[in-house]
Amino acid sequence: MTTQDDWIANLKAASGDLARSSTVTRVADLLRQQITDGHLVPGAALPEKLLSEAANVSRNTMREAFRLLAQEGLVVHEFNRGVFVRSLTLADVADVYRVRRILEGAGVRNAAEAGPEPVARVGAVVAEGERAAAEGRWADVGTADIRFHQAVAALCGSPRVDDMMRHLLAELRLVFHVMGSAERFHGPYLPRNRRLADLLAAGDLTTADQELRAYLYDAEAQLTAAYTAVEPA
After folding, report:
1. Distances in Å between the alpha carbon of 131 and those of 64, 141, 147, 177, 199?
2. Ordered DSSP codes for 124-140
3. Which of 176, 134, 159 has the alpha carbon at shortest distance from 37?
4. Residues 70 and 100 in one domain
5. Model pLDDT, residue 16
6. Three-state DSSP class for 39?
């Protein structure tokens, strides 16, 4: 059995790595955000030396950040070639949507307990997407769509769910790239986002839950068809 003295001794032994670990986490967060925002696409090379200099961190720190992102399934290391943004598989798509139905569905069902401010945040993010679409900024529409689903899951009121969604939606943004045109893919979902936000604001959670399930199954089917067309095997 581990005593308090034991774990305090372990903490002291690791204290020299705390500052570095914090930096590693921040670097990983920065790279993950670039993926979530659509700036890093599947197959993109992540040159260690260049990125270390850009982030003003050591190459060891950058390697540790890569290791964290590899554990999340966002990057891969190819022997003698380097580190690359990962291309997700059809099985990944199915699993991402399986987990989304759990987390976002829980968010919708908890909206009444979440209170008016988190529900209003869902509508505000929809409005961001609508403005971006009106201005022809379709990459930003994709980013707003990611934030919309983050806001829906955030209705759970759980920091752990929020953290899971940050990782999950970075993977999702990598999936979106298979669709090619952001306008053709995201455009039809804008009114569906608006309907969900309005149902949540009206407190009609039963209908919102049904709409969300249909929404996610439709999106998964669309992405599955695109993946199958690209990689029929």
Report:
1. 38, 8, 14, 22, 20
2. HHHHHHHHHHHTT-HHH
3. 176
4. no
5. 56
6. coil
**Model pTM?**
0.81
Q: What is the pLDDT of residues 106-160, one digit of tens each?
A: 999 999 999 999 999 999 999 999 999 999 999 899 889 999 999 999 999 999 9
Q: Do 78 and 135 reside in the same domain of the chain?
A: no
For 201-230, how does the pLDDT look when each residue is reduced to its tens digit (9 = 90+)?
999 999 999 999 999 999 999 999 988 887
With helix as H, strand as E and coil as C, how does 51-111 read? HHHHHCCCHHHHHHHHHHHHHCCCEEEECCCEEEECCCCHHHHHHHHHHHHHHHHHHHHCH
Element containing residue 26 per DSSP (H, E): helix 18-36
Q: Which domain holds residue 56?
A: 4-85
Supply the DSSP string of 164-233, one letter for each residue: HHHHHHHHHHHHHGGG--HHHHHGGGHHHHHHHHHHHHHT-HHHHHHHHHHHHHHHHHHHHHHHHHH---
**Residue 149 contacts residue 166 (beta carbons within 8 Å):** no
- What values do phi and psi take at 23, rounded to 5? -65, -40
- Output the CA–CA distances (angstroms, integers) from residue 226 to 112, 113, 229, 231, in the order listed: 36, 38, 5, 9
Chain position carrying tokens 């209170």 = 115
Same-domain check for residues 120 and 65: no
Do the Cβ atoms of 132 and 186 come closer than 8 Å?
no
Write the CATH number for 170: 1.20.120.530
User: CA 77 to CA 84: how far, in whole Å?
Assistant: 6
